[in-house]
Amino acid sequence: MASDNVSSNSAKAIRSSSVWRRYLPFLTWLPSYQRQDAVGDLLAGVIVAIMLIPQSMAYAMLAGLPPQAGLYASIVPLALYGLFGTSRTLAVGPVAMVSLLAATGLSQLAAPGEPAYIALALVLALLVGVMQFAMGVVRLGFLVNFLSHPVLSGFTSAAALVIAASQLKHLLGLKLSDTPSFFALMDQVIRQSPASNGIALALGLASIALLIYVRGPLDRQLSRRGVPGTLRTPMTKAGPLVVVGLSILLVWGFQLDHSAGIKIVGDIPTGLPPLTLPVIEWPSVSALLPTALTISLVGFMESISVAKSLASRRRQKVDANQELIALGLANLGAAATGGYPVTGGFSRSMVNFTTGANTGLASIITAGLVALTVLFLTPWLYYLPQATLAAIIIVAVASLIDVGALQRAWRYDKTDAASLVLTFGAVLAFGIETGIGVGVASALAFYLWRTTRPHMAIVGRVGESEHFRNVLRHEVTTIPHVLAIRMDESLYFANAYALEDVLTEAVADHPGVRHVVLICSAVNAIDSSALETLVHLIEDLRAAHVEFYLAEVKGPVMDRLQQAGFVDRLGKERIFLSTHQALQALGASSDAASTVNR
Amino acid sequence: MASDNVSSNSAKAIRSSSVWRRYLPFLTWLPSYQRQDAVGDLLAGVIVAIMLIPQSMAYAMLAGLPPQAGLYASIVPLALYGLFGTSRTLAVGPVAMVSLLAATGLSQLAAPGEPAYIALALVLALLVGVMQFAMGVVRLGFLVNFLSHPVLSGFTSAAALVIAASQLKHLLGLKLSDTPSFFALMDQVIRQSPASNGIALALGLASIALLIYVRGPLDRQLSRRGVPGTLRTPMTKAGPLVVVGLSILLVWGFQLDHSAGIKIVGDIPTGLPPLTLPVIEWPSVSALLPTALTISLVGFMESISVAKSLASRRRQKVDANQELIALGLANLGAAATGGYPVTGGFSRSMVNFTTGANTGLASIITAGLVALTVLFLTPWLYYLPQATLAAIIIVAVASLIDVGALQRAWRYDKTDAASLVLTFGAVLAFGIETGIGVGVASALAFYLWRTTRPHMAIVGRVGESEHFRNVLRHEVTTIPHVLAIRMDESLYFANAYALEDVLTEAVADHPGVRHVVLICSAVNAIDSSALETLVHLIEDLRAAHVEFYLAEVKGPVMDRLQQAGFVDRLGKERIFLSTHQALQALGASSDAASTVNR
Question: For the STAS domain, which residue ranges apply (chains A, B) (predicted)?
Answer without folding.
Answer: 472-586
